[in-house]
């Protein structure tokens, strides 16, 4: 298949703590574990790996941690993963994300404050839940 709109996307990021990341992304947001390799089970030179996503999505997150040589996450306030909800934001979802390690923050971009909620994951990366639909954003 040529590169195009249906090409699968993998967003890879370092993580300080894969268990904390899993709590946020899986128990908080509701993503599924697509693949996991525990650092303790990894062969020498390999790293811990957690891939999360929705089964029907054309993207997933890959979170990595190598205990012997950890890479510190360096997110900025503009490193965003935006999910267009296209409806009123369920407050129980925001509460669940916060209960599973997220922290609601203000965005420096007023657009995201007006049209959604920004939540930092345990590694400091930002998830925006936008109440608008993609077609009208």
Automatic annotation (TrEMBL):
Protein name as catalogued? VOC family protein
Q: VOC domain: from which residue to which, for each copy?
A: 5-132
Which Gene3D superfamilies did the record assign?
A: 2,3-Dihydroxybiphenyl 1,2-Dioxygenase, domain 1 (3.10.180.10)
The organism named in the record is: Streptomyces noboritoensis
Q: Which SUPFAM superfamilies match?
A: Glyoxalase/Bleomycin resistance protein/Dihydroxybiphenyl dioxygenase
Which superkingdom, per the lineage?
Bacteria
Q: What is the lineage of its organism?
A: Bacteria, Bacillati, Actinomycetota, Actinomycetes, Kitasatosporales
Query: Where does the chain cross the membrane?
Result: none
The protein's matches in InterPro entries, at most eight in alphabetical order, are given as: Glyas_Bleomycin-R_OHBP_Dase, VOC_core, YycE-like_C, YycE-like_N
């Amino acid at each position: 298949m040529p590169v195009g709109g249906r090409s699968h996307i993998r967003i890879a990021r370092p993580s300080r703590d894969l268990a904390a990341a899993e709590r946020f992304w899986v128990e908080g947001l509701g993503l599924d574990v697509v693949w996991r390799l525990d650092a303790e089970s990894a062969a020498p030179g390999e790293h811990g790996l957690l891939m999360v996503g929705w089964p029907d999505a054309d993207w997933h997150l890959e979170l990595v941690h190598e205990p012997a040589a950890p890479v510190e996450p360096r997110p900025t306030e503009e490193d965003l993963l935006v999910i267009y909800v296209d409806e009123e934001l369920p407050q129980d979802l925001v509460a669940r994300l916060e209960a599973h390690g997220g922290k609601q923050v203000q965005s420096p971009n007023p657009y995201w404050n007006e049209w959604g909620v920004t939540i930092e994951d345990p590694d400091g990366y930002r998830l925006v839940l936008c109440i608008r639909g993609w077609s009208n954003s």
